[in-house]
Amino acid sequence: MGTLVGRGHCLTCPIRPQSLFGCLEHDELSLIEDFQTRVVTYDAGEVVYSEGERLNLIYTLRQGFVKLTRFNSEGEAQIVRIVKPGDLFGYEKLVVDSNYRHTAEALGHVELCQLSVERLKELREQSSAINQAIIERALQQVMKTEEHLTHVSLLKSKARVAWFVLDWVAEQDSAPMPLSRRELGQYLGLTVETVSRHFAELKRLNQISEKQGVLSVLDRDALEELSGVL
Amino acid sequence: MGTLVGRGHCLTCPIRPQSLFGCLEHDELSLIEDFQTRVVTYDAGEVVYSEGERLNLIYTLRQGFVKLTRFNSEGEAQIVRIVKPGDLFGYEKLVVDSNYRHTAEALGHVELCQLSVERLKELREQSSAINQAIIERALQQVMKTEEHLTHVSLLKSKARVAWFVLDWVAEQDSAPMPLSRRELGQYLGLTVETVSRHFAELKRLNQISEKQGVLSVLDRDALEELSGVL
DNA sequence: CGCAGGGTTGACTAAGTTCAACAGTGGTGG
DNA sequence: CCACCACTGTTGAACTTAGTCAACCCTGCG
Q1: Model confidence over A85-141: pLDDT tens digits?
Q2: Which pLDDT score is estimated for A61?
Q3: How far away is chain A from the Cα of B80, in angstroms, using its nearest Cα?
């Protein structure tokens, strides 16, 4: 699973600025001079790692999207995070003796970069900027997850959908939508049918549109009103 | 607000083993030799800090419980975390230029210890164990919050209540219960009434009991069955 | 062509919220 | 010391929301 594309060279990596190593100043760049990584690709639906796996690899997403899922005892899935380009994932490996706590699955074709946990730990000894960057990313993640929790817990289904759309396109007016209705449901804590109905209604009211896997916001004000974000 | 009790001396602090500095080995203990803190107390309902505040203090809880709450635009509250003795909170301050992202409120009488963000950052420069400990705590927190999200998202109300009870008493058979029904609802994403009904039923079936603010598990198997945790 | 999988829609149902009434409890002031 | 009030918790009944079940469409693929 996963096709090796080649070796990554962090120093010249096009997405370094968005990556964990984007925190390094000029004088520290030499630290990653020979920090080599493996660049691998996966196709839609392929699993990058599964809960409990022992391999010691942390990933940076270069292209595409990855979903991180947890399953309860009845086999129902909760998508806890959707990884975007530049994001780090699998970093629960930084906790001593821990294994992956999610299943990571490619949404469409993805390209990612494998970092060895051991090498990253060595690097942490040498650069406090790296430590700070890891702490910041972890804390950002806490915040994101708390927001997700708050929305799932407090918002009605229609508001959740509206919030998701706004959050997904962020500052843009449109963005690719690699999630199926089922996956949206698993992310928002709703059934396929409920998600489908709300999307249908938003389209009927000309507040959003979907064409060839691209989601567009047509009436941002209306969506903000609905989501109750103000 | 908050009463200064005195200065804390980390080296001799009774709860150091559970605290952030519990990670330090013998040879590093000298680092905190003169790391002084302020020990303060708050009474039930007093606010330790509010969302957006600028003070640069991180806290370790010594005694009692603290709830961390977020409010949506309609003023509805979501309790995102209940802090227990030995836990660190307010550490979003470790992200540069960030303010508190919750309201922290004492549940009953609490005693806590204020650490200066600046001094903690200095300490991080000197000890990689501290860095590792902070990263581990942040990642543990991500995991805890994801679990919370999963439960709120996937479990039925009765199962959420059962899960909460088990999670709260942990390995014990009973534990103090400082949360009101309303607060339980705000933690679990339910209304007061729903929580009350389920507690009433669990008591009726002799699966739990409540006496003078102490919650006891009488039939662990039944609760596990209900919560679907297996 | 026929079938599988994702998406949509409608009718019905179950779960939880909302509204309302009331009980218990602790604190305050006359 | 007791009456009153505010607040939390409990319970019932009506109502709303989202889930369930089922039918159907559409697309892509063997």
Answers
A1: 999 999 999 998 899 999 999 999 999 999 999 999 999 988 889 999 999 999 999
A2: 97
A3: 7
pLDDT tens per residue, range A5-37: 888 788 888 889 899 988 888 888 887 877 778
DSSP per-residue letters across A97-146: T----SEEEEEEEEEEEEEEHHHHHHHHHH-HHHHHHHHHHHHHHHHHHH
The Cα of A125 is separated from the nearest Cα of chain B by a number of Å equal to 7
The closest CB to that of B150, out of A70, A139, A154, belongs to A70
Q: What is the model's pLDDT at position B1? A: 66
Residue B59 phi/psi, 5° resolution? Answer: -120, 145
Angstrom distance (rounded) from CA B49 to CA B56: 11
**What's the length of chain A?**
230
User: Which residue type is seen at B28?
Assistant: E
Helix (H, G, I), strand (E, B) or coil at B82: strand
Within B 71-110, residues with CB less than 7 Å from strand C: none
Q: How far is CA A104 from the centre of its chain?
A: 10
Q: Write down the pTM of the prediction.
A: 0.94
- pLDDT at residue B116 in the model: 94
Dig out the tokens for A198 from the structure. 């709300």
CA–C1' gap, B43 and C28, in angstroms? 20
> Which residues on neighbouring strands pair with residue B83, listed in sequence order?
B66
Structural domains of chain B, with CATH: 3-129 (2.60.120.10), 155-227 (1.10.10.10)
C-beta of residue B59 within 8 angstroms of C-beta of residue B99: no
Q: How far apart are the first and last CA of chain A?
A: 44
Q: Determine the distance between A158 (CA) and D11 (C1') in angstroms.
A: 31
On whether the CB atoms of residues B19 and B75 are closer than 8 A, the answer is no
Contact residues on chain B for A101, CB-CB shorter than 8 A: 143, 146
User: Pick from A221, A2, A229, A224: which is nearest to A110 by CA?
Assistant: A2
pLDDT bracket for residue B7 (50, 70, 90): confident
pLDDT at B230: 60
CA angle A26, A27, A28 (to 5 degrees): 95
The percentage of chain B sitting over the pLDDT mark of 70, rounded to a whole number, equals 99
Cβ neighbors of B19 (< 8 A, separation 6 or more) are B10, B13, B60, B86, B88, B113
According to DSSP, the β-strands at A174-176 and A47-49 are: unpaired
* H-type alpha helices, chain B: 117-126, 128-154, 157-169, 181-188, 192-204, 220-227
Q: What is the reported pLDDT for A230?
A: 61
pLDDT of residue A31: 78
| Residue A62 exposure: Cα atoms within 13 Å on the Cβ side | 20
